[in-house]
Amino acid sequence: MRVLHVSGAKGWGGNEQQMVDLIPELSKLGVGNFVFGIENSLLHNECLNRKISFISSKNDKLNTLLNYRYLKTIVKEIKPDLIHLHTSDSLTVFTISDLLFGLKTKTVFSKKGMGTSSSFLSKLKYNYKGIDSIICVSNSVQRDLGIMLNNISKSKTMVIHDCVSLDILNVKANINLRETFDIPYNFKIIGNIANHTNAKDLPTFLNVVDYVINELKNTDIKFVQIGEFTESTSELKQIVKNKKLDQYIFFTDKIKSASSVLNQFDLFLLTSQREGGPTSVLEAMLQGIPVISTEVGLIPEVIQNGENGFFTPIKSVALLAEKIVLLLSNEKLQKQFSAFNIEKVKEQFLAPYIARETFTEYLRILKL
Questions:
Q1: Do 99 and 153 reside in the same domain of the chain?
Q2: Tens digits of per-residue pLDDT, 194-237?
Q3: 73 and 59 in one domain?
Q4: Which structural domain range is residue 148 located in?
């Protein structure tokens, strides 16, 4: 079986990590994998590092007329049994290319998350008849996407969760948080990994910090936020300054192999208002880090409230803060959450397990 994976990603996030974790496991199952993406992108570089065959797009943007035609050429030359689309723009390119040139290849689209709104054109491509299967990363994504789909397209959806690789346990961190930010060893570290985008709702993260420190008077805690800076970063830093939290919250910007820093956290805090996964929660769980999160993405599917973590409605600042204080004051509960999480991820969310589910879906579509 030959599979052409298509992605328009230039940066790096959970989606790209999923691809490079999944593809080697698919190879072990006998799949020949090729990636069509942006030249010199982070995905391109990682594929080179992992010896994954990579085909560069005609320019630095996937969704262009040149690439509509080029996709047809690639399909003709490689003759993939199946095309796997991993980003929204890859779905656009496939749809237009198929309408113009008739690719005649079975196709899967992976839907990783939902925005706050979708255009008329988005609805058209999500319902495109040339898509044979839509793999949703969580039940919530399947539910929310279903609102936009007709009955035929809705019947094509299924859920296959994100995966994590045991390899992250062997990656050495290139930053020591306690040394870098002069955090005393008797202080707890609460961490978050999220790029500075609206979906991650980092203002709520900062409001939780404020509530823990200034309302609940827990001043022996430091917060570390890891994620790529954007145009929103200056606003976040201004919130920190206004609330006089400079000595309690530290921003690192994007760091290489962020998952390698997770074992330096005493607790992982997620305050997103929209998620597909996220992978970072699974990575934290694999490393035995207790998780407190808003109720987004796959969180309700991996966390049972009070048994292996806590989750709250989005923007529940006071409740999130209270759960933090409760958990950090209960060492027995921390150990319970840690043990449960490691076992759950190893049993259900490791890359080989998710690769087998994906391969089974490939076989179903190809009727093999």
A1: yes
A2: 999 999 999 999 999 999 999 999 999 999 999 999 999 999 99
A3: yes
A4: 2-163+350-366
